[in-house]
Amino acid sequence: MTKSKEKNEWLEWGKAIVIAIIIALLLRTFIFATSIVEGESMDPTLEDGERVIFNKFVYLINEPDRGDIIIIQRPNKNYVKRVIGLPGEQIEIIAGELLIDGDPYKQTFITNDAIMQTGNFGPITVPKDNYFVMGDNRAISMDSRNGLGFIEEEEIIGKSEIIIYPFSEWELTN
After folding, report:
1. What pTM was estimated for this model as a whole?
2. What are the residue boundaries of the Peptidase S26 domain, all occurrences included (predicted)?
3. Domain for residue 101, yes or no?
4. Which member of 35, 81, 159, 160 is catalytic?
5. Is 35 helix (H, G, I), strand (E, B) or coil?
6. Partner of 91 for a Cys bridge, out of 52, 84, 85, 125, CB 3.0 to 4.6 A?
7. What CA–CA distance (Å, rounded) separates 94 from 104?
């Protein structure tokens, strides 16, 4: 192989590496990022220490939907919670039963024990451009009921998509 050919091959490899790095940075900045679940408020869906990939782009073209697991950015920390109430809806919990605008809502994503540990709450109406969120482990979750309050649309930075660590837990989260 001539030195000229060898030099061209190194340049091509260098270009490919630079392009790959730029694409990875763009994807990480604008499309996907990772977050570590801290605490047990989303048990059993997400466990303490799991790493999830979240989609940053999805809410630029769509709005959060009931049941979505979202990443909430607050000044001191990020939170992972489930969307329960949408803007303008009335939320009430009576003896663990979730009522949305007065109609019972079946919570298939949590256990019966978690439902019974929810207690009573509301009624409360979700303001425009805000969301009502709860953790799946209702007994210990700090959420819209007891500390986080309503979540403004601008505070939602992504939707949890995939558990990537530990590797034995790989699965879609929604």
Report:
1. 0.79
2. 10-164
3. yes
4. 81
5. strand
6. 85
7. 10
